Amino acid sequence: MTAQIINGNDVAKEIRAELKKEIAELKEKHNLVPGLVTVLVGADPASQVYVGQKERTSENLGIYSERYDLEENTSQEELLKLIDKLNKDPKIHGILVQLPLPKHLNEEEVLYAIDPKKDVDGFHPVNVGKLMIGEPDYLPCTPHGIQQLLMRTGVETKGAEVVVVGRSNIVGKPIANIMLQKKEGANATVTICHTATKDMAFHTKRADILIVAAGKAKAITADMVKEGVVVIDVGVNQIGTTADGKRILSGDVDYDAVKEKAKAITPVPGGVGPMTITMLMMNTVRAAKVAAGLT
Ligand code: GUN
After folding, report:
1. Ligand 1 pocket, 38 CB below 6 A?
2. Which of 29, 112, 174, 254 is deepest in the core (most CB within 10 A)?
């Protein structure tokens, strides 16, 4: 079997077109413009790229966008003061503090300070808890994007054996929780594997849908999956550099070998990646609608 390639760029484009239309309608009918602020502390090059992409995508869709670039040595107090100001700003419906923060800052305290109604990352414990009890407000962007990829490529999740590799708060735990919900695009039997799992292949071989966020290049090999599996690869690992200095990327799955056994698979890049920012935009539109009493 040669796999269907799940094209994240195409799915993200489709969702962005829907959002653009919805944003135009919100402006026309309700004079409502969703607003997103990004806060970057320090000058980490990868974070600068991500924040720039978020800003550009917001503007393209008609979302009001603000960006704060704070010095590396910003104090906890200054950052909390800014978040407090943004929590109170009616133009701003979503607040995103780019992670990781510099080491001297307390990440947990910063994330907890964001008003849960403006927590478009879905990282605040209130939103994590709401997901856990099946009443989610904001789903974290990468897992939400994975669910959309599955739904929009017609992958049946109800009753499926979903195996998640990785237990991070950003991907592994929330995607497991999302897949467990008694809802459309979920309702699966979920297993989570992690670094202490005794026999990883025993579990991964049982998967109808395998979601891998292990943070290790090519951790999943062809002998670890069954014929006809659907594979979602969240990993982005640099495994080398081309002669002209470009990064060579690999997912957490041995793509070339696994695609020969899989029914469908996401590539890296061009699979899950493009979905993450798109879901941030979706959460921001939702936050604006909630603030205006439109949902
Ligand atoms: N850094 C890497 N991924 C993310 C994300 O989804 N949200 C935030 N705030 N920072 C990140």
Report:
1. no
2. 174
